[in-house]
Design goal:
With about 350 residues, the protein is α+β, with helices and mostly antiparallel strands. About 40% of the residues lie in helices and about 20% in strands.
């Protein structure tokens, strides 16, 4: 009999949950659906360890590979030999390590997928899950529009497999934002604040920040309107008319070529462009992707191109990847059935 004077041993820590019967079956159905689809497309599985030396995540953090203060959420502990270890908080750093160590001599395109959980010490009061179940894929050694298009088609066909109606895929390009901030002359700290404000579409906050800078009126106008630059392919022409720096123009040209590759897909109308998508600017080098489903308050998956992903571990390889949140995708699937 449980002693009521002590903490209930049957309860779980905050942010952790059990999956029972139908719920477990639904999550496994989503996981199997994603992995079967990727296998059918020629992707091969890799399995990463649940924990490894903590320095892997420290290196990734310093290189900007881990975002949103994730380093502060890593569960760290000492083993019996006194080594500092860390639970897997993100697949990005592990995949970079594996690619640098195992794929360095590969010249051909490498397509991999993974499945597993990441563990993050989220704050108690925010109600976030501390255990996230992910399925993701990566394409290495191909820095082409074709690889970017393949990644998007993978996402489209995965969400269609689960019969999700009205799902949406947002495509951004970090080059557009980088071109603007370089032209603006903003300091590093000002750029970080601007990124935060743009990501949250805080137009009033952007205006206040820019009012305190010496940025030209033309650039201020574009940055001020950045949160509104989202929509179908026509938004790219509007964005092009507002700028003249080479880096931003190249980003828009890249997106237009990408649209030519995917526009004939029957589900291409589910795609839209969002040039205010600037999250993860520490390691993304090209397109940035997010997937959304009705009834789910946040993205059900995210990814993008990061061509310097493995360089921090000694081998530079172009890459693009995306990860699905199994729990959110399973929830979206259930909502569609109700």
């Amino acid at each position: 009999m449980i002693d009521k004077q002590v903490k209930n041993p049957l309860r779980l820590p905050a942010g952790i949950k059990d999956y029972i019967f139908d719920e477990a079956e639904n999550h496994r159905y989503v996981e199997r659906g994603l992995t079967n689809l990727l296998q059918s497309k020629g992707y091969r599985e890799i399995i990463t360890p649940t924990f490894e030396y903590g320095e892997i995540f420290e290196i990734a953090t310093k290189a900007g590979m881990i975002r949103n203060g994730l380093d502060e959420k890593v569960y760290r502990f000492l083993d019996r030999d006194g080594n500092l270890l860390a639970l897997r908080a993100d697949f990005t750093a592990q995949i970079a390590r594996i690619a640098a160590a195992r794929f360095a001599d590969f010249e051909s395109v490498i397509k991999i997928f993974y499945t597993g959980k990441v563990f993050r010490a989220e704050p108690h009061h925010e109600g976030r899950s501390r255990e996230k179940w992910q399925v993701g894929f990566e394409i290495f050694n191909e820095a082409t529009i074709e690889a970017d298009a393949e990644a998007i088609i993978n996402i489209i066909e995965a969400l269609d497999y689960f019969k999700l109606s009205n799902f949406r895929i947002a495509i951004g390009h970090i080059g557009y934002f980088h071109g603007l901030v370089e032209e603006s002359g903003l300091s590093g700290e000002e750029r970080q604040v601007l990124r935060y404000l743009v990501e949250r579409k805080d137009m009033a906050g952007i205006a206040r920040l820019l009012a305190q800078t010496t940025t030209t009126a033309e650039v201020k106008k574009v940055l001020q309107n950045l949160p509104d630059l989202h929509g179908d392919i026509r938004i790219l022409d509007k964005a092009k008319s507002m700028i003249n720096n080479k880096k931003s123009l190249n980003a828009l040209e890249n997106l237009q070529k990408l649209w030519q590759k995917i526009s004939l897909h029957p589900l291409a109308p589910n795609v839209f462009f969002d040039l205010s998508e600037v999250e993860g600017m520490g390691y993304y080098t090209g397109i940035m992707l997010k997937a959304f489903a009705p009834g789910v308050g946040t993205e059900i998956g995210s990814g993008g191109r990061y061509d310097q992903l493995t360089a921090v571990f000694g081998t530079e390889m172009p890459a693009i990847g995306f990860s699905f949140d199994v729990h959110l995708l399973a929830s979206a699937r259930l909502m569609q059935q109700e």
